[in-house]
């Protein structure tokens, strides 16, 4: 019998086919999965013949040649479905690793994972320290208890006076992530799978949360308010643009494609859909929060510095916002860690997410200047360390404001709110 006779087989005939070979299922799927080339199809052909040999003999069919008709018969009957079903049920991990998943190291690489985790840990530490500093303002009686100890008296001022650098680094990182997601090459977007594209959408939005947390936590300590308002406006424009583009891209030729079997069965595609909805909600709340900050920043600062007992008690309501934002940030990061582990456990040697790329090194280097600044302030003292940032003829001068007891203690026990003046020689 020839290929034409094979095509005449009915569905009831092919139901007689039975399959139970894991290695063959993997090799066949390698050749027929999405984006397979002619060479891969030729590679799968002998495994298919071996799998259907008993069935062909039972039906009295000669071994078919490798023609278009053969592939039509194989893919339109339930034989291929039977092989796939057996493979995904009995050989799940092997089937997942057989897929040529290349990943995207600039989004989900090991360097980016370290970057996200490092930033989340540092933001949490800084938030706790800044809350501690604010508590010392609200409850002066507990100040000596909270700041006692040589190491604490060094670390808290270092955190306070390096917050500006940390916020600036986080802002630059957020803008870079948003810009990379928006202005990536068309070829890169066309080659992206639905999951890779979703990560290009999720992680830039996650990078906004640390900026919001630090901005709100240090609201009454920061200067250059006009510059920070402009930066918030830029971030908001990029965020809205990304949201619009993500919505439009759902129907485009490259982001609107259906997920592959590998994404459905190996990478928990449903969780990405849930995170997509969650990201839209978070992004919308961030946009509202950005606008509120731009409009009410002066009012918030005045409220934050209020000395009345009522104002001090109401400040705890305000602190709930950065605390909740930190919780959402950690939800993103932990979900991302889970996803990357899942991808690496169910990907083959083609996966590049374990490799270090140039972009990953640059992303990790974003935090180096502010970390150096923190240790320098911790080693010296805020006055000397901040003085080192200026060039002649400017120097930092420590002044004493006896009317307030709201400043952090310096290493020698004095209250030293800092500013800088020009020294005329």
Automatic annotation (TrEMBL):
<feature type="compositionally biased region" description="Basic and acidic residues">
    <location>
        <begin position="413"/>
        <end position="425"/>
    </location>
</feature>
<keyword id="KW-1133">Transmembrane helix</keyword>
<protein>
    <submittedName>
        <fullName>Uncharacterized protein</fullName>
    </submittedName>
</protein>
<feature type="transmembrane region" description="Helical">
    <location>
        <begin position="357"/>
        <end position="379"/>
    </location>
</feature>
<keyword id="KW-0472">Membrane</keyword>
<feature type="transmembrane region" description="Helical">
    <location>
        <begin position="107"/>
        <end position="133"/>
    </location>
</feature>
<feature type="transmembrane region" description="Helical">
    <location>
        <begin position="230"/>
        <end position="248"/>
    </location>
</feature>
<feature type="transmembrane region" description="Helical">
    <location>
        <begin position="166"/>
        <end position="185"/>
    </location>
</feature>
<keyword id="KW-0812">Transmembrane</keyword>
<feature type="transmembrane region" description="Helical">
    <location>
        <begin position="316"/>
        <end position="337"/>
    </location>
</feature>
<feature type="transmembrane region" description="Helical">
    <location>
        <begin position="197"/>
        <end position="218"/>
    </location>
</feature>
<feature type="transmembrane region" description="Helical">
    <location>
        <begin position="277"/>
        <end position="296"/>
    </location>
</feature>
<feature type="region of interest" description="Disordered">
    <location>
        <begin position="405"/>
        <end position="425"/>
    </location>
</feature>
